[in-house]
Amino acid sequence: MKRIGVYTSGGDAPGMNACVRAVVRAGLYNGCEMVGIQHGYEGMIEGKFVDLDARAVANIIQRGGTILRTARSERFRTPEGRVKAAENLKGAGVEGLVAIGGDGTFQGAVRLNEEHGVAIVGVPGTIDNDLFGTDFTIGYDTAVNTAMEAIDKIRDTAASHDRLFYVEVMGRDAGFIALDVGISSGAEFVAIPEAKTNVQALREELEAFKGVKSSAIIIVAEGEEEGGAFSLAEKIKDAAGYDYRVCVLGHIQRGGSPTASDRILASRLGIASVEALLEGQTNVMVGIIHGRITFTPLRTTWTQRKTVDNELWRLSKILSL
Ligand code: ATP
């Protein structure tokens, strides 16, 4: 394999740049030519290809977002769109691809592989950490740290005003971010999609805090079944007489300079993805489980559900006393 393409797709995540850098340098180190595909699948259809040398990826390891840009592409969901993308790849002499993104990106990759025989290795790049086959996805650690820092600040206001704060964090239909943020910010309660939120029990917990805690933080995952922070706050409303506010952290969780953990994870996975392609692997995602590089069939990354750690859930209960 002489020419390898790399693209970022779906939601951006901190550490994608560190991964692009690792992919490019691993390819060059192994004597390959490296091609960046801009704007994900949309750019593949439009032929937005750029040659990348080692200097093209200099000074990006610390930058959030993605220098290759990203996009959501409706055209790529159609067979015609994928035919065009495959033709462009062939025309540019690209023989293998590294796809950095989430489950949607991998679903597109599997179609491209099965319909057009393009060799593809996926790298998990999403803040949500919701892909089966890796303990952590690139961007997750940074997103948790960003949310934690924001909540530390919110707590200052909550304590000063004797208020209850409902803070909504990202994570789509998974509670990984919420649970880690809840523990690391000392939240009183965490509502996640994986566990039914007992509104009555939450009310009673807050009543029990009366006269003990003058303020409290409730972390709500965006996919939580009561409908998110505003909806949950509306249902609890006047519990224990707390004055309350709702804060949706939103997209600040997606940006920013990646943490050391995310940079190292991105570097390891980026290199592993190129080495896997060169060894003839395809249709797999590289991940890290218990500190070791692993390979999981791409399809398994979204057909099997990664579960939150029940032990963390138990700890969050103990710590909120
Ligand atoms: P994140 O979880 O961080 O948002 P993602 O990779 O899941 O990332 P999506 O928007 O779901 O993000 O997918 C990215 C792109 O992958 C889509 O815009 C589309 O072009 C392509 N894609 C997704 N699902 C399919 C599919 N079933 N068939 C073909 N292409 C798909």
Top keywords for this entry?
seven-stranded mixed β-sheet; 321 residues; binds adenosine-5'-triphosphate; 11 helices; four-stranded parallel β-sheet; elongated; 2 domains; Rossmann fold; alpha/beta; 19% strand
The profile of the biggest β sheet is:
7 strands, mixed
List the strand order in the largest sheet. Answer: 3-2-1-4-5-10-11
Alpha plus pi helix count: 11
Q: How many discrete structural domains?
A: 2
Q: What does the overall shape look like?
A: elongated
**Number of E strands:** 11
Q: Mean pLDDT, as a whole number? A: 95
CATH architecture of the largest domain: 3-Layer(aba) Sandwich
Radius of gyration: 21 Å
Order of helices and strands: EHEHEHEHEHEHEHEHEHEEHH
Please name the CATH topology of the largest domain.
Rossmann fold
Structural account:
The chain is α/β, with parallel strands linked by helices and 321 residues long. It has two domains: 3-139 and 258-303, 3-Layer(aba) Sandwich (Rossmann fold); 141-254, Phosphofructokinase domain (Rossmann fold, 3-Layer(aba) Sandwich), CATH 3.40.50.460. Helix content is 41%, strand content 19%. It contains eleven helices and eleven strands. Strands 3-2-1-4-5-10-11 form a seven-stranded mixed β-sheet, sandwiched between helices. Strands 7-8-6-9 form a four-stranded parallel β-sheet, with helices on both faces. Strand 7, helix 7 (199-208) and strand 8 (216-221) form a beta-alpha-beta unit. Helix 1 packs parallel to helix 9 (260-278) and helix 2 crosses helix 3 (79-91). The longest helix is centred in the middle third of the chain and has 22 residues, at 140-161. The termini are far apart. The model has no long low-confidence stretch (mean pLDDT 95). The structure holds adenosine-5'-triphosphate (ATP). Residues 9-11, 41, 72-73, 76-77, 101-105, 107-108, 111, 126, 128 line the site of adenosine-5'-triphosphate (ATP).
